[in-house]
Amino acid sequence: MKTAAPQTSRWRLLGDATRSGEMSEVAIEQSPFSVGRNATHRLVLPFPGVSSTHAALRLNGSEELWVEDLASTNGTWVNGLRIERPTRLAHGDVVQFGEVAFSVEWRDPSGNSRDGDTHELSHDHSAYLRAAKRIDELIDQRRLRTLFQPIVRIDGGVAIGFESLVRSEYEQTPERPRDLFELAAVRHREADLSAISRELAIERIAPLVHQRAVAGQRRPDLYSNVHPKEAVDERFPRSIEALRSSHPEIPLVLEFDNLLQVDSADRRLLFEELRGLGVGIALSELGSGISRLGEMSVTPPDVLKIGGPLIALLSPGNARMLRLCETLVEMAHELGSLALAQEVETPEQYALCRDIGFDLAQGFAVSRPLELEQIAGGLDVPDS
């Protein structure tokens, strides 16, 4: 890689570098661009979770920016994953040094952001800063909508529960959960956003669940996502205990996406504690990496959610993918887990998943996420 930076840097980090609540912009003006707690670094982050010499950013011309962790204690993370080798950054990524997170931005000489932005929110600098500042208000004032996506028994298409999905009520903030959590990362509030989203979902669906309980009917399961930062937060088990105490009538299933940073023994203890509270466990995003197989073998979930490319590539002519999915479903059943096909987008995919032996399904082929009012007229959930 080149060691000389261009005279005018096109790469920026946007975030709260001082953790004072004020957003700032850091231009990557030279290469290497060192990061650490020590005052000699180009980007000084004087916080306990940042190592004295933590990481280095390197430019390769004006088009490429790379980040390398320098044996830091708490790691360098890109989009929620801890990096083990030099990693190329892209416009819109979130890079995190210990607990201090920044959004990565690239601009051309005219000040325009790179095309192909992965965010719904344009990376106009002032717009991004305004949106990031509003994350605190959005979380603290609970200005979030909740949608409910049906989960059905694949053999009959009858709903057995719903996955809660969070949306922002503010026009100035992105709507997609992924983008909301990336903004929350800049404010170090991913765990708060995850917890508040669950609390609101439970509060909003509780009256409907209560109606079915009073009528002696089966109550729908509520699937709730757990952000990786919340899963390692020491407050997490107690918050779930409080929710179970206030709403014991709601069958709660917690969905974990990425627990690779949690030691296997700690993960097993966490799952045992949650199950002791009457909470179901689901592991998701198996299709995004073979590492999920290791998670499942150590602590088998109640529900294994299989999606991503594994479902997207299903077709009658793709015998290898069909067999791979069959094997995963068989493995889930051997471990005592239900197999749920997620991101099922077409009737053909739904039929293939049913023939393979999946137990449950969700996705646009089943239903788009619904407003509370759309399911208030009657929850289509079987009594047994």
What are the defining features of this structure?
single chain; 384 residues; alpha/beta; Tumour Suppressor Smad4; 2 domains; 8-stranded mixed beta barrel; 6-stranded antiparallel β-sheet; 24% strand
Structure description:
It is a single chain. Helix 1 (125-140) crosses helix 2. Helix 10 links the parallel strand 18 (338-341) and strand 19. This protein is an alpha/beta fold and 384 residues long. Helices cover 32% and strands 24% of the residues. The longest helix is centred in the middle third of the chain and has 25 residues, at 190-214.
Rg over CA atoms, rounded to whole Å, is 22 Å
If strands are numbered along the chain, what order do they take across the biggest sheet? Answer: 12-13-14-15-16-17-18-19
Class derived from helix and strand content = alpha/beta
Q: Tell me the overall shape.
A: globular
Topology readout:
Elements: E1 11-15, E2 24-27, E3 33-36, E4 43-44, E5 55-60, E6 64-69, E7 76-78, E8 81-82, E9 87-89, E10 94-97, E11 100-106, H1 125-140, E12 144-153, E13 158-168, H2 177-186, H3 190-214, E14 221-226, H4 228-231, H5 236-246, E15 252-256, H6 264-276, E16 280-283, H7 291-298, E17 303-306, H8 309-312, H9 319-334, E18 338-341, H10 347-356, E19 360-361, H11 372-376
Parallel strand pairs: 3-4, 13-14, 14-15, 15-16, 16-17, 17-18, 18-19
Antiparallel strand pairs: 1-2, 1-11, 3-5, 5-6, 6-9, 7-8, 7-10, 10-11, 12-13, 12-19
Helix pairs in contact: 1-2
